[in-house]
Amino acid sequence: MFATYGPMFLMMLVAITLASLFFIGASTLGKKKPTPEKMMPFECGSDSSGGRHLKLSVKFYLTAILFVVFDIEAVFIYPWAIHFKTLGWVGFFSMTGFLVTIVVGLLYCWKKGALEWEK
Amino acid sequence: MLLQAFAISPLLMVGIGAMLLMMAEAFSKVRGGLALGAAAVCFAGVACAAGVWMYGVETIPGIDAFSPWLRVDRFSLFFDALLCLGAGLSCLMAGGYLPEHNLDRGEFYSLLLLSTFGAMILSAAGDVLTLFLGLETMSLGVYCLAAFRRASARSSEGALKYFLLGSFAAALLLYGFALLYGVTGHTDLQGIGDAMAKGNIRNPMAIMGLVLILVGLAFKVSAVPFHMWTPDAYEGAPTPATNFMAVAVKGAAFAMMLRVLLTAFGDPRSASWASGWPPALAWIAVITMTVANLVAGRQESVKRMLAYSSVAHAGYILVGMVATMHSATQASAGVLFYLLTYTVSTAGAFGALILCGRRGAEAVTYEDLAGIGRRHPAAALPFAFFLLSLAGVPPTAGFFGKWFVFRSAMEGGFYWLTIIAFINSVIGAYYYLRVLVFMYMREPAAGAPVATPMRSGYVTAALILSAVLVIALGLTPTKSLSVVFQAAAIFGG
Amino acid sequence: MDSLLSVFPSKDFSLLGIILAAPLLGAFVNGVWGRRLGRDAVRLMAITAIAVSFGAALLTFLALDREVTHAGHGHVKLAWTAWDWLYTTGKSETQIPIALRFSVDALSGVMMLVITGVGLLIHIYASTYMWDDKSYWRFFCYLNLFVFSMLVLVLGDNMPLLFVGWEGVGLCSYLLIGFWYGKMANAAAGKKAFIANRIGDFGLICAMFLFVHYTGALDWNGIEAGSGSLVTVNEATQVHVWPIGGGQFTGFLKFLQPDSPITITAATAVGLALLLGATGKSAQIPLYVWLPDAMAGPTPVSALIHAATMVTAGIYLICRLNFVFVLAPGVMATVAVIGAATAFLAATIALVQNDIKKVLAYSTVSQLGFMFLGVGMGAFTAGFFHVFTHAFFKACLFLGAGSVIHGMHARIHDDDKAQDMRKMGGLRKYMPLTFWTFLISTAAIVGFPLTSGFFSKDEILFKTMTTELVHPDAERLGKKVTFVQSLWGARDPSHFYVPPAWLGTALYWVGIAAATMTAFYMSRVVILTFFGEFRGWKLGRPSQIDAHEAAAHDDAHGDDAHGDDDGEHHHEEDLTKPGYAPHESPRPMTIPLILLAVFAAFAGILNPGLLKHFGLPLPLEHWLEPLFEESVKVGVHAKEGAEHMELMCTAGAFGAFAVGVGLAYWVYVVQKGAPAKQWAEAAPKLYKLLLDKWRVDEAYEASVLSGVDALADTATSVDKGVVDGILARLTALLVAAFGTILRALQTGVVHVYAGMMVVGLAGLGWFFVMPHPDGHVVEKGSGDYSIVAAPGVGYGYIWAEDGAKKPEKEVFSGTAAFPLHVEPGNTKKVELKVRNAFGIVGTKTFEVTAPAKAAPAEVIEMGQNGHGS
User: Fold this and answer.
1) Range of the structural domain that residue C816 is part of
2) How far apart are CA A99 and CA C854, in angstroms?
């Protein structure tokens, strides 16, 4: 077991040691001269505004998830398209079934108003 | 090709039915018929399964085309019918419950049907990949159903806990599968089983895989100590969803357990009486029964009591699971029969609980039910009847369920396990009878809100159907026994 | 008739379904909607249900007769399988089907007719008798349900179905005895009946287990076919009485082990178990005590359940399984002795009772004793014939008593007083119909020549005198032993016990004594009730005010004052004021009486055994003979010169009748009861003892019941201590622990749940990571053993026999079995080392001892899992 995984463990060990060395080294060796400006949250040069716990509209998530769903769809379609001929009718009907399911989902989302930003 | 489609017609029926229902719900303004439609789809699923069963699934040419991903055999057909039955009863209950409690949103039925679809895949899966797919399809739907009462903090809390812990368990299960794949090089259960049986595998990773899989399975059947989510989720969910979780999800989980343990770990070393999964499951069964029964007796909420009771029943079924190591067919037939009786009795009990309350006054606690036996005998009588079946009073279905499971355990030589199970079922009778005591021998405290039963044809239909089945299974267990024996025959020996 | 048989073929005679379904439907309708239906509809429903059932039973009986004629022999059965119920597993994995199957043959056919026929008459009677009861519908629901259960008992084609009916009639009896549950005594009587019957049921259950084990069947035909295996000379296959079940006492309990185990044949065991059941249901010694108390129920119930039908179930059971009983002559003799003793004991008690229903109750117990005596002596037909005739005359007597009580209730409203014969007298004038029917039935029970009771009772006595029991296997077995030897002597299974020939003669004289007393006390009842002057209240034309009051009272309490649940609150009338005499009961009550009296008088012609020399046919004997002839052939032997004894026996029985009646006439009519008082004063203790029913109840109270009470107290304290104290507190503790967790969760911490899962995961992991060395020893005979280790994933084993040289290097191999040879009397130790896939090693030591002689090895497992490296 060790022969197989040994190098990996060694690698992890080295990585952890190095990272902690740098981290601890930087915080102990470096000089600290805090000023109010330095302690301010950094936000692309402009003054920060509002609290940290900003609530995003649920619509962002909805759109994001829909995007992911249809993105994944493409992942399925690409390999199928390449092997279209070898897969034959079985492949065709399988993909049709898949697409129909996706379309039903899309129609449902659409009809339920998930695609409308303002309502 | 057509015959093959016929062979998986229960699956197709529920899958396509779910999509059609979604479309109907999205495009139509009418709300009323959804419950009926969903129930119809489920019972059509039962009918399809029965049709394929009678046609003789073995005789269909090319039935192996789905193997090993989907095993279309009598076992999966039995579960198709059982799960569709449970789902159909839940739909009927929802048809009465949701409008009554102002929760009438159509996605309930789509979610429930898609969940059922996942459960059916799960019971038929012969490969860990399809198994996981089915598991997640089922679970995702159920997570949503558990959170269906969005306005209720308790519902959201229960659902979130269920979701988090469920993901945790699913991860463990997946990890176990991965380890097994690493050791054996197979993802199909039969292949794993052959590899486990062939050589004396010395790789400890195989055992770790088994441990992780057992944890995942135990979570899904809500065995102690992996049951903690159950009362919260059951109590928070709308009662028809609770019923679905108690009946269909648990049924599918046991189907998965039977298939995984008997196919992949059926070899004498993995199923050793000293060091294999049977003794481990025996311990889990003992802890599950005892803890669940003790805690159930102290509940004040009937719904929560029923949640713990479902945990306790999982313990009894695990007793039957342990016995499968000696006589795979007979003991698993006992498990299947128990699941059948448990499904109809539990569905009846939840249905009766629904019937006992109405808008703004849902019957939840024992106090809510006080005196209802005298004021509304039509609602209380079925409740009493189903509780007696759950308690295992002869000649109801529940009695024969326990009888066959305990007997197979006895014949397997697990005397102490049977005795503990028996003692537990006696303890269990206590809290079921407590409901009867409240219904028939107590009067509500002065000034307490008095529960009045709702009126709903849907719920009544569900109750009648369950009652007929409970009585039929109690009076003529022979026919259903031959069915479960045929279903269990796939495990041979 | 042929068309009937073509509609209902004998293999699928679904007409039985109608016989059964009609009363069940009646019970259902009356039970569910009875309160709303009103009295008329309830009455209509109940009576129609039984009438339909009776009609169907008649048709069935005719069809059966037709079939018998067709077949030319009596082994005909009309059967109907409702459905297959379930299977049970018998010896060597055979599947024993338990079907919901009903059948009717000669025996059950007669019973069925009696149940539905007498049942119908009693329903009609009760529909008037109970008219003013506020739970009218409940009464008829129970009564219909009883008829249904009784029919299930009789028609069931297998033991479990009979048991279902058996329990069903027990339940109905319990419900009906305690029908006026407002009264404490009634509820207590119901409970007593229930408990006595429960004890009997235990016997029945044991018998069922034995049947499954030995005959491999539970249906009548199967039991009969397999009954041969109930008698076996092989000790191993007999029933081990001590040590129970055939175990072995070892260690410090060894002193309990006898030299050779005490065994009895399975036939004896089954017979005793069935007998226990039968004594419970048929109120025989020692379980008879419930029946007299059961008279607390309404009178029609006493007539139907506690006289005509249910209590005869025990005799029916013995007749049904006659082929089992004849295999065990000892049990047969026990049945006969119990019967004779009960007949005698109950008759002595009945001599002095003053409550008319109590007398009849003890008379029932006594008559049941006669039936037991008959079947015990192998006179199955005679015994069953007495069941048949007794159903008529005793039902008639009870209903007549009910009619009398009904009349007395006009002014006496307390139950106990209304039933007291000392308050009656002279009723002949006021209730002529009741009187004549009562008189006819009394003539039947005391054995007035040519009445039904004369033929049936005398037949029993004749058969008792003239038969002896023989062992069916006597020739094969060999050595006959005495009763004492059979219990304590050298136990060789080939020994057998046969009751002595004088047993029959002795029991005959006991029976004659009981019959004499029967004649006496029944005559006493008739004389006290119907003759002489009325003693209830002052007769005469009531004054205007009194009449008004009486009429008002009549309205308030109606015909049956028990009807009120709060029966205690009657204000007693002043009986010294004049009032109208009791009047005859209405027609629906008298017509059943007349019909029953007709049967009581003439039913004897069905089996006039004593007149067969005059060429009279014996239809009943002919009818039942095929069922019993085989058993009678093997188990019963007629004494020499039996036919010559007939006249003598009849003379004895007639003498009993004449002496009993004559004495009663002399004491109560000629001497106006003076001698009775003198006797009571001469032997006050005996009189008191008889009046107190031999104080059996008290004795039970002191011994059995107090024991049970003590047990119950223990159970209660255990319940308090263990259940409340430990379980409840433990639960509370658990809940508290969970509560803490739940409280933690309210802040949103799911980690605890996950933590529990991790704990579970760790526990499972621990179980699987640790090795579990275990195994069992397989004996291969002649000192060879093999130890088989438990398998496990990745397990390797090292075996080391004690004393053998240990190898230099330990190599774990896959050899899971270790062969071993141990000389007799020696012990060897074997150490098993197991290494699992994780490389962890556990050990376990086995110790194998070969016994000095060939017997199973004692295996003591030593050592525990040691974990290392």
Assistant:
1) 773-862
2) 77
